[in-house]
Amino acid sequence: NNCVLQESNGPTDAYAAIAKADRLTQEPESIRKWREEQKKRLEELDAASKVTEQEWREKAKKDLEEWNLRQNEQMEKNRANNRIADKAFYQQPDADVIGYVASEEAFLKESKEEAPGSEWEKVAQLCDFNPKSSKQSKDVSRMRSVLISLKQTPLSR
Predict the structure, then answer these.
(1) Does the reported pTM lie above 0.70?
(2) Are residues 65 and 43 part of one domain?
(3) Is residue 134 within 8 Å of 128, Cβ to Cβ?
(4) Domain boundaries, position 77
(5) 4 found inside a domain
(6) CA-to-CA distance for 24 and 31, rounded, in angstroms?
(7) Which residues contact 124 (CB under 8 A, 6 or more apart)?
(8) For residue 148, what are the contacts with CB-CB under 8 A and spacing of at least 6?
(9) Residues 84 and 22 in one domain
(10) I need a labelling partner for 84 at 20 to 30 A (CA). Which of 4, 51, 130, 149 fits?
(11) Per residue in 80-133, pLDDT tens?
């Protein structure tokens, strides 16, 4: 059993190879032309899709870099504004004792000033109506929509 096996990509039988060659030569000219044109068309489509894919990748990379640049600039601006606000807050007398009580007192002072029609302006000052501003907080879109609808059509008594 010292038999050596040979691998081949085509038929191993000589008659099968001749039969395959006969089938290829018997193929009509129109089908052969169509097959060649189809192969050429598919190659062109593949090349075009690769070019388009590369363009999209470059555009996406450029957009991502621009977004990162804008995001970093915005973060720097926010940091600078927060530092300024922090310094101004701590320069007040008894700043460590005041804390958030100062903002509550300012709100209560404003709420005591009753002017007809100014209620919604006060609510709007307390609410952040920009849905993209805070990603870490809870989803309050339903509450926001209720407040906006109440502002547009107030309850009748």
Answers:
(1) no
(2) yes
(3) yes
(4) 11-89
(5) no
(6) 11
(7) 151
(8) 129
(9) yes
(10) 130
(11) 988 888 877 767 666 555 555 556 666 666 666 666 666 777 676 666 666 665
